[in-house]
Amino acid sequence: MTSTETARRPAAGRAPEGAGRVARAMSSRGLALFSETIVVSLAVAVLAIPAVTALPALAAGAAHFRRHVEGESDSLLELGRDFLRALRKGWLWGIGAAAAFAAISATLTSPLITGMPGGEVFRWASAVLGAAAAVVLLRASAEWTAGCPSWSALIREAADRSWRDLRGSLLLLLALGLAGVVVWMFAPLMVLVPGMLVLAGRAVVARAQ
Fold first, then answer.
1. What's the total number of domains in the chain?
2. Cα 138–174–63 angle (5° rounding)?
3. Average pLDDT over residues 98-116
4. For the residues of 87-155, what is the DSSP string, one character each?
């Protein structure tokens, strides 16, 4: 056996060990992210039970996710504080968003709309409007921070970014569609939808930064 072959043998043995460490680290981070998604999803689902608090709850969940990824304090107590901050400045937007989506849902499901002249066109227009509003609000909640001056300015900026970043908006539409499919297939999985949407929103915002 030559000295070259002897030198190669330890190197060949070290490669799988290094690869194994990388795989274990990636697996550990993936599991931590998955578990955090479930925690955020359950917390946001509970906070959004009154419906009018859904928007501040998503914002608090997104802020919690950002802190977790960046290695900052990510306790549930801090998530609750963020929720109160977002609710204090955005309660009017929360009521408006809940009322708008209730009206759009009624339009899409009411049999009376189909019987009206142009009812199908009105229904499709409502669906498009609802999807666009959902994308903007989801992006706004993902961009929210405790230092945001107002929800009005945040939503205007989110609308502008949604138009300029069409690829990101399509990704958010896809996330919303997948969330709908998950609920349609197995309704109890609805509790996991908030975490999916928060994760999608933060991913799109991080991608654009």
1. 1
2. 30
3. 83
4. HHHHHHHHHHHHHHHHHHHHHHH-HHHHHSTTHHHHHHHHHHHHHHHHHHHHHHHHH--TT-S-HHHHH
